[in-house]
């Protein structure tokens, strides 16, 4: 708890209180970066995609206008209260003004002009965000499928299916087709700009070009049932060569699918897991749960809930619902310690 | 030509004061029904508040296991459902009921027994939804009930049946009351009370009733489809069978956005009465305030899809709904400037109702401005479904609607009870509530900006959400405590507060011309109205228009000179005043819908048929009961 009261926290508190003053043009970007410091999935990180500056310039304009109107209204209100409060005499009668048509027309037109001023750039940006890449442009295509309560990423051009951890190369346009398998979810990496709903029966499109390598956090934004809070995801924006290495690794079949020491483990996998989970080279019909072909190459599992290690995987295999409320994972029977150990060793070898 | 009359006792009451539980159960008096609405709504408000405190308790630290996922999801679903349908709407209905007949100079609403029916349907519907807690199946699909999460496949229990059927019952209550008030306002106004002389509160009431009768049928259709899907296996929202979950979203928000104005316009009406009274001036530009209210109501039907910018409607629809949404800022801005101009150059009497009304303007402005921000889709795509929206709606609905309703409670409590609320406790309540609400809700802006989605029961440590969640939770506990100050104040003042008299605030509208609390028949003689501020003009003089039939009116024991208030003398004022008889048939009839819902919940045809039989029998007996 003491961390909440660290000096840094209070500094940030003070800075946010003075937000309106700090939004000064020249220092804006560095101030944004400073404000977002310590917040791992802030919308204020604006340089991570090509469209970030467009979104931010709107955001900034609206914040400025709102802040100015806020200050005007509150200052007038407080001034009027102090200036016109009755002092002593409760029965005094001020001049009985009923209105002033000219003034009222003026303050009807003024907000109309402001509204026009902010609507036009909004509409321009809407169309810019919706702009699909031209045919033949070099893009990375990802089909995003929301499921209760995890994300499947399918790279149709690369033949890769993975879960929860998304990889993109820096500088290349990413094209997302966002859909859902069950209920409505929403695909959101705050650092990358806006969200898109994953709706069953509707494919939504989303485009951006990542500009800075790094690890970005996101999570489901549309309430989707019990474990909505546990539907987290990670985005790895990688250099071209790192990304290509990752692609090569994902396309390869791990040695464990044919290694003789995992013979027993593969049998247990077939008996307990294969109805829902696929491991290429072992069984590929199970599509209800995440593809486990390279499960150990992902540093977290359970949709970002747990670090991938022996201990967490063992706990998961013994009691998935205890580890993740509402988890849809069903085991044919309760697994004993030896079975769990064999399966965990196998899963840890799937890289 | 001046004759003397006292408004309160010009004719002998035809009915003696009735007391006892039975008199409340059978009452058709709009004032008693108003009070029952108010007390019920306040109890539901406390329940909804308790749910909110549990939500905040779970979020006080990251990765808390205090409450757990399923309970948390039920709590936020029921918090919103309770606050929207069982607290703010019926609290507004309490004011409509009590005040509209008094403000327009009528003896009751147009259909007094239908009015009692509305109340009982509302109460039984509210209890029905909350019974879900007792049977361990509270609704947990969100107050917006998005399909297909709320379809049987993903929500197999009775949880969402309680919600669906409960909302249908509440819709009946709202629709019946809506038609009743529209007829009342159009037909029951006192002589001379033209539409443009009506108090702005009555105008806002009228706009709200039109919003109700136009929007509730839409959600009823949506709810019926969902009920058919859940109960009879139809496929309105089932994708695999060609249904469309976006149909639900359009139906829900086509109701849901007007609903926002159903919640806020009554508070705007209250503030439009309180600010002038305590500024001792007329409302600045009253016609502009009225027309901007109508404009808000009208535009409110053209903006529903701004709740759906993330659903992928395409750039053209997004642009259109962004433009209409931003247009609503214009009439809203007009209202705020008119309120500021009302207090400008006024003689401000800073009593508790005025504190709350001024805070309404201050806080609602914050909610309005953040609303303009997410009217722009590129910004909204970063803010929607994040805590930024939670902050926004609470500035609108708590800083706006609740703040305005408290202003109304402090303002009219003397009229309701005959006694003043304690000023010292009132101001203590005010400051605690104002400061605590800002500590509770303002940090939510930061949480949203920094990427915290709404409706999550847990969040990871290290994302930077810790501090602001802690602040918000501590704020909410103080906010809860501030309500106890109010409850204490209301109890203490009701038992032994200062006697109010007819007109404790030196106000301008008709309800203050009669005793507090008013007699059952309200007005011994129906007043004749010649201005929008009849009582003010009666007290402080208004140029007469060559009409010589003036009356002197005694208000609160003071003679108020030559006035025009009651120039119309009821031709038959010697006759007894006709008031409707008490009746328990509205309550019996109201038991019908909730019985039908219970039958649908249990899939029991006998109970459903019994429910229909009760309703029909109740209406039948009601129809053949003598009216007076």
Let me know the largest β-sheet of chain B.
3 strands, mixed
Structural class of chain A: alpha+beta
What gross morphology of chain A would you assign? elongated
Strand order of the largest sheet of chain A: 3-2-1-5-8
Instruction: Enumerate how many helices of chain B there are, as a single number.
Output: 18
The mean pLDDT of chain A is 90
- pLDDT under 50 segments of chain A (min length 5)? 1-5
User: Which descriptor suits the 3D outline of chain B?
Assistant: globular
Q: How far is it from the N-terminal to the C-terminal residue of chain A, by CA?
A: 38 Å
- State the order of secondary-structure elements of chain B, H for helix, E for strand: EHHHHHHHHHHHHHHHHEEHH
Q: Outline the low-pLDDT stretches of chain B.
A: 1-16, 543-574
Helix coverage percent of residues of chain A?
25-40%
Number of helices of chain A: 10
**Residues in β-strands, percent of chain A:** 15-25%
Radius of gyration of chain A, rounded? 27 Å
Largest beta-sheet characterization of chain A:
5 strands, mixed
Report a brief summary of the structure:
Chain A has 351 residues and is α+β, with helices and mostly antiparallel strands. Chain A has 10 helices and 12 strands.
Q: What order do the helices and strands come in, and which of them pair?
A:
The complex is a heterodimer of chains A (351) and B (628).
Chain A lengths: L6 H11 L1 H4 L5 H9 L15 H33 L16 H29 L9 E9 L2 E6 L4 E4 L1 E5 L3 E8 L4 E3 L8 E3 L5 E5 L5 E6 L12 E7 L1 H12 L11 H10 L27 E2 L4 E2 L2 H9 L1 H4 L13 H13 L2
Helix pairs in contact in A: 4-5, 7-10, 8-10
Chain B lengths: L2 E4 L14 H5 L4 H29 L10 H36 L7 H23 L24 H29 L12 H33 L12 H35 L6 H14 L15 H13 L1 H15 L8 H22 L3 H7 L3 H31 L5 H27 L16 H31 L37 H7 L10 E5 L2 E6 L21 H18 L2 H19 L5
Parallel strand pairs in B: 1-2
Antiparallel strand pairs in B: 2-3
Helix pairs in contact in B: 2-3, 2-4, 2-15, 3-4, 3-5, 3-7, 3-13, 4-5, 4-17, 5-6, 5-17, 6-7, 6-8, 7-8, 7-11, 7-13, 8-10, 10-11, 11-13, 11-14, 13-14, 14-15, 17-18
């Amino acid at each position: 708890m003491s961390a909440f009261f660290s000096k840094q926290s209070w500094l940030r508190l003070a800075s946010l209180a003075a937000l309106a003053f700090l939004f000064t043009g020249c220092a804006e970007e560095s101030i944004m970066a400073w404000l977002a410091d310590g917040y791992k999935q802030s919308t204020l990180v604006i340089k991570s995609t090509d469209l970030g500056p467009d979104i931010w310039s709107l955001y900034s304009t609206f914040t400025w206008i709102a802040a100015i109107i806020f200050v005007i209204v509150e200052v007038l209100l407080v001034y009027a209260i102090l200036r016109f409060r009755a002092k002593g005499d409760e029965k005094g009668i001020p001049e009985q003004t009923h209105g002033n048509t000219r003034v009222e027309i003026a303050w009807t037109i003024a907000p109309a002009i402001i509204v026009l001023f902010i609507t036009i750039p909004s509409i321009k940006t809407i169309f810019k965000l919706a702009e699909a890449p031209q045919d033949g442009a070099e893009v990375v295509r990802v089909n995003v499928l929301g499921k209760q309560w995890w994300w499947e990423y399918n790279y149709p051009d690369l033949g890769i299916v993975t879960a929860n951890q998304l990889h993109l190369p820096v500088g290349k346009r990413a094209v997302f087709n966002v859909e859902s398998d069950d209920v409505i979810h929403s695909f959101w990496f705050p650092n990358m700009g806006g969200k898109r709903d994953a709706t069953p029966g509707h494919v939504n499109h989303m485009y951006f070009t990542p500009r800075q390598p790094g690890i970005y956090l996101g999570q489901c934004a549309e309430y989707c049932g019990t474990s909505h809070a546990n539907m987290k995801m990670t985005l790895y924006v990688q250099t071209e060569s790192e990304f290509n290495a990752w692609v090569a690794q994902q396309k390869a079949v791990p040695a464990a699918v044919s290694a003789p020491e995992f013979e027993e483990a593969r049998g247990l996998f077939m008996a307990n897991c294969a109805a829902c989970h696929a491991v290429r080279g072992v069984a590929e019909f199970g599509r209800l749960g995440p593809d486990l072909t390279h499960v150990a190459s992902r540093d977290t599992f359970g949709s970002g809930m747990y670090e991938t290690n022996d201990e967490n995987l063992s706990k998961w295999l013994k009691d998935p619902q205890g580890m993740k409320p509402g988890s849809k994972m069903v085991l044919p029977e309760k697994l004993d310690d030896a079975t769990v150990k064999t399966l965990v060793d196998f899963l840890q070898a799937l890289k | 030509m001046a004759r003397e009359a006292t408004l309160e006792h010009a004719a002998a009451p035809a009915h003696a004061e009735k007391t006892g539980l039975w008199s409340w159960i059978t009452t058709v008096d709009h004032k008693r029904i108003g009070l029952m609405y108010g007390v019920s709504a306040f109890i539901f408000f406390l329940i909804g508040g308790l749910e909110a405190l549990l939500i905040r308790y779970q979020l006080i630290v990251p990765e808390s296991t205090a409450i757990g996922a399923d309970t948390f999801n039920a709590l936020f679903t029921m918090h919103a459902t309770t606050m929207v349908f069982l607290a703010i709407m019926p609290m507004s209905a309490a004011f409509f009921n009590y005040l509209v007949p008094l403000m327009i100079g009528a003896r009751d609403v147009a259909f007094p027994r239908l009015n009692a029916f509305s109340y009982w349907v509302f109460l039984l519907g509210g209890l029905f939804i909350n019974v879900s807690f007792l049977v361990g199946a509270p609704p947990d699909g969100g107050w917006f009930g998005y399909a297909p999460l709320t379809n049987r496949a993903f929500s197999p229990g009775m949880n969402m049946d309680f919600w669906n059927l409960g909302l249908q019952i509440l819709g009946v209550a709202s629709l019946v009351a809506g038609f009743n008030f529209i007829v009342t306002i159009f037909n029951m106004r006192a002589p001379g009370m033209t539409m443009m002389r009506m108090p702005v509160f009555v105008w806002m009431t009228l706009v709200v009733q039109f919003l109700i009768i136009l929007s509730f049928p839409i959600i009823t259709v949506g709810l019926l489809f969902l009920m058919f899907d859940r109960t009879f296996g139809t496929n309105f929202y089932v994708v695999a069978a060609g249904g469309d979950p976006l149909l639900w979203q359009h139906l829900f928000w086509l109701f849901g956005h007007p609903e926002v104005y159903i919640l806020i316009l009554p508070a705007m009406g209250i503030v439009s009465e309180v600010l002038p009274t305590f500024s001792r001036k007329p409302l600045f530009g009253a016609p502009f305030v009225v027309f901007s209210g109508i404009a808000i109501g009208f535009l409110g039907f053209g903006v529903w899809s701004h709740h759906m910018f993330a659903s992928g409607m395409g750039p053209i629809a997004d642009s259109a709904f962004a433009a209409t949404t931003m247009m609503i800022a214009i009439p809203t801005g007009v209202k705020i400037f008119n309120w500021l101009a009302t207090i400008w150059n006024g003689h401000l009497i800073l009593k508790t109702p005025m504190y709350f009304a001024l805070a309404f303007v201050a806080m609602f402005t914050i909610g309005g401005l953040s609303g303009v921000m997410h009217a722009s889709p590129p910004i909204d795509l970063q803010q929607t479904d994040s805590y930024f929206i939670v902050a926004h709606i609470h500035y609108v609905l708590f800083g706006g609607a609740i703040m305005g309703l408290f202003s109304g409670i402090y303002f009219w409590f003397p009229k309701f009870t005959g006694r003043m609320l304690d000023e010292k406790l009132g101001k203590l309540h005010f400051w605690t509530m104002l400061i605590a609400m800002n500590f509770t809700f303002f940090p939510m802006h930061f949480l949203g900006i920094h990427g915290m989605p709404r409706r999550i029961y847990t969040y990871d440590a290290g994302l930077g959400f810790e501090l602001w969640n802690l602040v918000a939770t501590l704020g909410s506990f103080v906010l809860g405590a501030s309500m106890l100050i109010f409850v204490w104040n209301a109890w203490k003042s009701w038992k032994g507060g200062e006697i109010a008299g007819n007109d404790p605030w030196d106000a301008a509208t008709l309800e203050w011309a009669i005793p507090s609390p008013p007699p059952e028949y309200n007005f011994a003689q129906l007043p004749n109205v010649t201005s929008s501020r009849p009582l003010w003009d009666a007290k402080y003089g208004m140029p007469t228009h060559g009409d010589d039939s003036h009356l002197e009116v005694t208000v609160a024991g003071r003679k108020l000179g030559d006035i025009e208030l009651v120039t119309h003398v009821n031709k038959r004022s010697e006759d007894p005043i006709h008031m409707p008889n008490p009746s328990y048939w509205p309550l019996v009839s109201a038991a019908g819908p909730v019985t039908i819902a219970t039958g649908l919940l249990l899939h029991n045809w006998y109970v459903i048929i019994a429910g229909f039989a009760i309703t029909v029998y109740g209406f039948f007996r009601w129809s053949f009961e003598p009216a007076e």
